């Protein structure tokens, strides 16, 4: 019997964990498969091992793993596959099929651009805030994301900063883009859910607002219906990756 195991990142933020759980439950309600379980890579329960074992306890012999990750960095390339490989060794009779992360795709760029337009009204410059990674593929992905949003929003200045593991940092990115002119700056946290990282972005944006700077931001990407639709497409797709 087939099952779906959703894997989100996890967070220490109660608000972020609640958002992720509510999101996954909405997805589950739209998919006609009896065995569906959620799990988290870290910081939020249930973890992957527990979610996996719940699927088996409910009779699963094929587990379709659906990672709720925007891009393919270390967690997708190493951490999740390692955990699944260990589980495969413990449960050799269970077939594990892992789906792709979201990747850079038109639907997400369209959704991100709509979130920005609906929140800002008018802007001159856009700062995309990424989680951050030392993986070079992530930097190539964000180059595409920046170009795609620049085209969709019709603005000349779009740049990217990172919350960890890469430069420029959030503080550097904000200071740099604010120095580029006097018009309205808009900040797009390229994150699926709220959490400690999005709270950090909000703090830095509010600090500059209090200093009189013209700056606004949007919420996480999962606020747009298109993200939920994409997860359902991923869960229903027959395409897999080998771990």
From TrEMBL:
Keywords, comma-separated and alphabetical: Lyase, Metal-binding
GO molecular function list: lyase activity; metal ion binding
The keyword Metal-binding is assigned to this record: yes
PANTHER family: SIROHYDROCHLORIN FERROCHELATASE, CHLOROPLASTIC
Protein name: Sirohydrochlorin chelatase
Organism: Fredinandcohnia quinoae
Lineage summary: Bacteria, Bacillati, Bacillota, Bacilli, Bacillales
